[in-house]
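Supplementary Methods, section 5.1.

A reviewer requested that the exact input to the structure prediction be made available. We therefore reproduce it here, unchanged from the version used in the analyses.
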Amino acid sequence: MKNLQINKTSKEKIIESLELIAKELILNRLIIVNKSKFSLIDIEIYYWHNFHKDDYAKGIKHTRPFGDFELHRYGIDISLGNTKNNDFGGILIRGLYDIDNKKVLSKTKVVKSLFNQLVQGSNHFELVKGKTPWESTFNSKRLNLGQSDNPNKKEYFNSPYKFLAKDKLLFETYPDKETILRESNLNESEIKKLLGYNIAK
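The structure derived from this sequence is encoded token-by-token as follows.
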């Protein structure tokens, strides 16, 4: 994630940095696996720092340096740092768009779809700068966080750290779309434009 950094001088600056990184990833970055191109359409941020004690980031052991891909039991992250530096976390990839095949890939298909592009021998797997099909993003709450069983989890339980591409095409059959949109920062008319119908917020 060249040129993308987290300003760690305060909680407010950290939040601002995380939002900028998320928007940059969705709007201006592509995942290249050999000859295949994917854009990020649904990501969730988990990040812990002394000024930003989101204990949900402690769900896995973060070992990779900032910007690396990190495979774990929940899927694939783009690393936001590792535990050696006492600030760590990741950006969980929950949805991709296969640009060549014009296909939406939800979380259950992300790992399989990326790894299906790999071949025996040497492979090219990286995050690069490139224009995606999306013009804007929106925020929602992260999904499936479980119990907020300590003060740090309670503080971040409702944080809008889920970022998605804002495009009607993506929500025709997307899993949990009503929950995502109900918990989002979008108004009723924006939600109707994406879904084609109203939902109760």
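The mean pLDDT is 93. These observations are discussed further in the main text.
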